[in-house]
Amino acid sequence: MKTFPADFTWGTATASYQIEGAWNEDGKGPSIWDAFTQTPGKIAAGDHGNVACDHYHRMEQDVALMAAMGLKAYRFSIAWSRIMPTGRGEVNAEGIAFYSRLLDTLAKHHITPWVTLYHWDLPLALQLELDGWLNPVMADHFAAYARVCFEHFGDRVKHWITFNEPWVIAIMGHSNGVMAPGRTSNTEPYLVGHQLLRSHGRAVAIYRREFQTAQGGQIGITNNCDWREPKTDSPADKAAAQRALEFFIAWFADPIYLGDYPAVMRERLGDRLPQFSDEDRKLLAGSSDFFGLNHYSTLYAENKSADDMAKPNPYGNGGISEDQDVELSYDPAWKTSSMGWSFVPWGCLKLLRWIDQRYDHPPIVITENGCALEDDLVDGTVHDADRVDFIQTYLSACHDAIESGVDLRGYFVWTLMDNFEWACGFTQRFGLYYTDFDTGERYPKDSAAAYAQIIADNGVA
Predict the structure, then answer these.
(1) Options 302, 327, 368, 421, the catalytic residue
(2) CB burial class (10 A; 0-12, 13-18, 19+) of residue 121?
(3) Which is deepest, 7, 107, 131, 397, by most CB within 10 Å?
(4) 165 given a catalytic annotation
(5) CATH of range 2-460; options 3.20.20.80, 1.10.600.10, 3.30.360.10, 2.60.120.920
């Protein structure tokens, strides 16, 4: 048995738009995802999150599932437009009441909340009136929203995450247009990423100045990154893999830990990459109490010329491909999920070590890790041996990372239950519990029992 530290955090994660439903109830304003999903052709099968898992009405039942598993922590996000319907100004008391009930219910079951302030669902009014994350004034509006959350929930929340996966907001939302607000550009992603970092810095400054001492919590940001393995041992491919990682996770981590964007991004992007003001640098420096990491897969990285990069590449998801001159591929021998993401536990180990070395041994929390599979409900349960194997092997890699000196402090499975999976709608299932989207009922999978056993044993074989 590979046993984890006694204080290791064991949890699952969700996101508000993917599970809550109740999209226009009790004073909630519309978000960019409410609008995006109503646009024909944007979402698989025309699905939307109007009801999703109906967590808004089934919250107590869902927390009971967590308690039955023995979860120690639950990461969820707050819907900004449920708290502030237009993103600024008036606060919605019913929205405050819902999250307050959720926090109180978690406390009754001794489950520690980890709260994400923003998981991609910008209030629609801010997009329409201010051009969303392209506008520098968004940093002030996000900070004001964060202050409301700290004021109302900080007595019970000791772990805050400002943004979930800013890379996705920038690239998927403003480069290839796959995610809301659905914009396509080769300049906007870098402008958006800049404003997200500025917003993070301001929210953290407010928390540390006004709340942290009294409330005794921590605050950070969660970045996503898949490992990039050099396709060959050539210096060019090794440099390509490093470049791909820097365009992926270092884009958002370097300004916090090292003071500026990676040098390779400055060299390649020139004026397309904004400059930080002295104030922004000061606010960003050391602005994360832990390193939040969402990790799912691994791809090979190969150096390519500009001519080669002009050719279509289905794996060019590590940033804007033409800015990197990196071609991505996978090994056909690797097992893959229904999303086409490869199962490569050693990639997780290598990424954890890379983060540890580059950022001088920060405390790391894996805030998402999981896989989508073609699950079949049979007699009220799902036999998902591949997901069980995924969790066990990735946790084994996590343990190896700890043994090698990485300060890994927690692990959250994505996700508690099958949900609305963004542009994929309801076609992809990541959950430990199967959701019947017609009735809203949840059914256990073998992976739920396996994860519960891992938590009880505090280790993996």
Answers:
(1) 368
(2) buried
(3) 397
(4) yes
(5) 3.20.20.80
